[in-house]
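Before going further, learn to read the protein records used in this course. The integers have meaning only within a learned vocabulary of local backbone shapes. To see the layout at work, look at the sequence and tokens printed below.
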Amino acid sequence: MDQCDECGFAYDSVAADGVPGRLGGLADRYAAALAGVPDVRRRPAPDVWSALEYTCHLRDVLRVQRERLDLALHADAPEFAPMGRDELAVTAAYNSQDPAAVLAALAAAADVLATAFAALGPVELDRVGLYPWPQPTPRTLLWLGRHTVHEGEHHLMDIHRAGPR
């Protein structure tokens, strides 16, 4: 069983038919979380992302996971490229982006990915790709969906934990 030691998220707590709804609900939860942060660009520590940076990261995770899902549906046992999360935060200048635009893009990406997962049946959910993190490991599309839900939940925790100071 996959479980996050830091946030307690248990992957098997999300049923296959629950993935789309959990993904689709992320946009409103991130909008509410950002609304509660007085300075979305403030980093609580030099090596800890700001609320805006976590939100940009989730937007990009949703987009990358959609690409990975599509690849796994069209190729047998593909190897997913790493997304370069830390590099992307710098090259895309996450902390200088417009929060409203980021939230709109996150909502669109969440909707696209939720719709894609809603269309999958058991055979598609069992398709496998080589997931690159933390080490290359074969993962099913069901795991990919659950992992994406975890990313959303975990980074909401990060935003709340960093909170206003």
